[in-house]
Write a structure and sequence with these properties.
Elements lengths: L2 H7 L4 H25 L2 H7 L12 H5 L7 E2 H15 L6 E3 H11 L5 H14 L6 E3 H15 L6 E2 L1 H5 L8
Antiparallel strand pairs: 1-4, 2-3
Helix pairs in contact: 2-3, 5-8, 6-7
Amino acid sequence: MSETDAMSEVPMSPRTRAALCRWQIVMGLALAMTGALTGSGDAIAQSFPALAPLGARSTLFQELDRDKDGTVSHAEFMQHRDDQFARLDKNGDGFIDHDEYIAARASKSVSTSPQVKAMREARFRRLNTSGSGKISHAEWNAESERLFAAADANKDGRLTPDELRGPMHQLEP
């Protein structure tokens, strides 16, 4: 009997099982964030592929810093966000519809709990400022500008690894 089988046979109340699941999610995300922030994303990516920071052999900062000058310019940041928009817009109609967004978020998530689903829905509604049921490129760019401004603590138009640490989780669609 495997460890997983043994765990499923341990009598637990639904509340205890839910708490354990939340703890596992939090710990997995903590490991992923630690790996991304310390540059040890390779080990995390191998252990938790769903939590790999933007590519198995790259941290988010390395992915964003396209010219490898040690900072992320506004142009580099916006190009990354444009690339994300293009990947999410599966049907190429110039919008990220609800199904495209939720499907992309679900494929990156380790949980399908009601709380996680509610968070995805709330984020979609926040991005879809027009209420049209689709995220336009303009809405996506407005959010991208907001994220850049929030991350650029010293307002020099460039992001350092330290500045990206806080809002990094928001950069994924």
